[in-house]
Amino acid sequence: MISETDAPSSTTSADASSAPGASPAGRPDYGRVTGPAGPGDTALAAGLQKVLDGHWAQAREHTRAAMTPDMLNPIGLSMEEHREHVLAQLKRLAESGMPDRGFPVEDGGQGDTGGVLTSFEMLGHLDLSVMVKAGVQWGLFGGAIANLGNAETRAKYLPDVMSLDLLGCFAMTELGQGSDVQNLETTATFDPETGEFVVHSPTPSSEKAYIGNAGRDGRLAAVFAQLITPGEDGEDVGHGVHCLLVPIRDASGEAMPGVTLTDHGHKGGLLGVDNGRILFDHVRVPRQALLDRFGAVDAEGNYSSPIDSVGARFFTMLGTLIRGRVSVGAASGATARTALATAVRYGLVRRQFDHPDTGKGIPLLEYREHQRRLMPRVARAYAYACAQNAIIAELDEFERDPDAFDTVRRREMEAHAAGIKATVSGFANDAISEARLACGGAGYMSENRLTEMRKDCDVFSTFEGDNVVLTQLVGKELLGAYAAEFGDMDQRETVSFALNTVAEVVQEKTRASTLWQKLIDSVTDREHTDILDRGNQLELLVDREEHLLETVARRLRKAQDSDDGSAAFKVFNSAQDHLLHTGRAHMDSWVFARFAEAVDACEDPEAKEVLGMLCDLYVLDIVEHDKGWFLEHNRLTTERTKAATAARNRLCTKLAGRARTLVDAFAIPEFVFDIPMLTDGGVDDPVEAAAGVEGWTKRGLE
Which of 185, 412, 464, 546 is flagged as catalytic? Predict the structure, then answer.
């Protein structure tokens, strides 16, 4: 049990992440580096890696074997040179057959969604420009055709999409609408006299923007537009957002008639991706250009759909976004693990100030604050990797057998795909920035790649859905009690529906498995149970989620009797921060559940013990960051939050002694760490450096 006496003791911390040292013998930008620390416990690392690699370990290993140093983000190239480099890498991927894995067998693929998503995740260790351009080509553009097109359309286009003979765009986002996809302004109006759709951008704000492959290489665009057909009385009838294939460039690379293309040019990152804008001026495409799986128009202009509800149809079509969001979350996690592994390695070899007992330099990772800034993030990296494996497995199951997913389960999966993207991409930006700071001046040098990772990962928090909007989506899904009809609700209806929301929704979902029921049953006295007890951790996180959900629903009830949409919006808007907190709390408990399940399933005793400590640190880090809520709502006393901080500190120190092993388990190719700050200015004998770390570990970190 944690007690108040476990509160942290005062520790003097040197400025471990300071800018360049002044040792004349070393590089003047870095100070003296003492040499490469040896690898960690290889047997333990292998046991941990097995858990992280998950079900698609073979796909990971196959991808690792194919990774080469020339696939790394090239430093110092011009924008055009980087684009050429990335396009060449995509051609290599196409020739390897890797992208084919993600397409249905009947379309010439291998039907292995989990395998291809896992393989593309690995690209996050090397060059995010390659991962993004690959995701646009095969995940979004190809995915739209595969998921929304009929058999004839798929047979016509997908072979060339897979081989890279046809490069395309996913033209959804507009300048004016951003995340409000349901209200896009681009129109696709059917002309019954010619049997064509007329695709048009009616306003400057309807211009498609930030579109990958639009700046230079894309020839065909999957364009999302408001579908309009003529009504019986001659008035136009809208059917909501649908997707059509629209040529934007000819074979020579020139813009098609009526299409205006603008290259976004230099950006804050991802310079190997040619983002651009697309504007349509009454561009005519044949009726067959409509991807008609969920909405078709016949030769007379009659519209039909297997889904009656406009809202339900819209959200069903947006299922094409699931792959993209899952991919972005996965690649974000891979990049974060690379940054953390780099910072941990540097923290073991970079020494700052002499130890009073030995007279030798103290490794950065021996300092308490350095441990606190890196080790909780390493724990979160493990948690998010396990959660990512879980959402990939669920998406793979869905694409293999969609009928096995009822509306409730599908919307739950979509919410978790949105939530994991928001959670992990936000974490990645934080982790990369902290890793950069933890490496001081060395981390700021482009040659050491951390700043390149930070630039490229930055936009992951806003594309494939802004993280705030996606987290709000998670909260809304909870409020809607996972109801399928939620897609049709405006803000006033959402407020009203909140009346039906009760905590049993959370409890039912959380306690569904035998493991969770066992853990819940083990909790007898929440106030005095050890916070490192797994059942108590589950109860703590679920209780927070339940309370937040109940109270946000209560706040929204204020507008239930109002027919005034403006009043409903004001109530809804005033509770937005509360709704976002609810969404984040749900993702915290959902990730915890997936991580704890992975720990429970681990068959290696030593690896299971270490994973258990990482899981504890993950929970304690949540408590640390949301300490105010737990105190304000009397879920933890002041003494227990102090004890939680002390336990967090102890775990940071204990796990720091195995830090190299923990990051070795990420199984990132060794050439990724062939960077100056880890290789220059070292001691002559790497074994001596490794022994130094081992001795430090034996002094009390285990």
Answer: 464
